[in-house]
Structure formats: C-alpha cells, structure tokens
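Query form — protein Gliding motility lipoprotein GldH

QUESTION: What is the three-dimensional structure of this chain?
INPUT:
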Amino acid sequence: MRNSISLLLLGLTFFFVSCDSTGVFDVYQSLPDTWSKDHVVAFKVAAPDTTNKYNMFVNLRNNQDYKYNNLFIIVEINFPHGKTIKDTLEYKMAKPNGEFLGTGFSSIKENKLWYKEDFIFTEMGEYQINIEQAMRENGKVHGVKDLEGITDVGLRIEKQMN
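ANSWER: The structure tokens for Gliding motility lipoprotein GldH are given below.
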C-alpha cells in the first residue's frame, strides 16, 4: 500500500511538471558532426489559428567543441501563400571568460533564444521555417564552412497567455 501511494505521488509529480500549457510546437533536429554552411534545418508548422499571438524561439544545444562566443544564424519563414520573412540574427553563446551560457549540468548546454514576439499566423496552412548558420571569422571573407559544436537545432512556438 505504501509503495502504491509513493508511486502514485511520483507519477502525479511527473505529470504536472511535464505539462506545458503554452507550448504549441517544440521540435529538435540533431546535426551530424558539424553544421555545414549549406545545411538548412527546416521545420514545417501548421498554423494553430489566425487570431492569437505566439512567441517563437530558436533552441540550440552546443558542446565544448563550439569555439565562438556568439552565433549568427539566418531564419526564414515561408508563409503558405508565398510571402517570406528572412532575418539575420546574432546570439551571445558565452561569457567573456569563455564559460558557455545556457542550461545543463553536463558538457551540453541548451539555449532558448528569442526569435519572434507577438507573432500572428496570418494565413491558415503550413508554414516552413528554415534555419541556417551564418558564421564568419574575423578578417575572413568566406563563412565558416563546417561549424563544430552545435549538436541540435530546435524551434519552439508558445502561445501567449494574456
């Protein structure tokens, strides 16, 4: 009887901790050993509705092989009826002393990075969101061909709670 109650309490705790009432979309894609300059990480998202506001995040996981203190990415939203929005974004990935930002207790750090705030899916249908790395080294014309240290790229969409 005592084990049953303990098991039930553990199950309920797990259930309530894992519930996420604001998350509408939360998907990661693992990368091979490097993130090639030509590799576009694509996500297909069905518009949840055309009236509510949503916050969008780029989620990244990096390990100790990441050798930069920032990250440049290009994010493109392709709307169902042909409209496109393209943004070049920069995110800080490490403190000045080299310590990585993000959460995690192991050598993998996870970063939840703001992308769009108050975004409204103005068209019903399927949106495609593309993310590509756009890193450059100081003094060099060409971009970093194979970016090391980024292990996963994700997209998270949360419904705004009023």
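ADDITIONAL NOTE: Residues 2-18 form the longest helix (17 residues).
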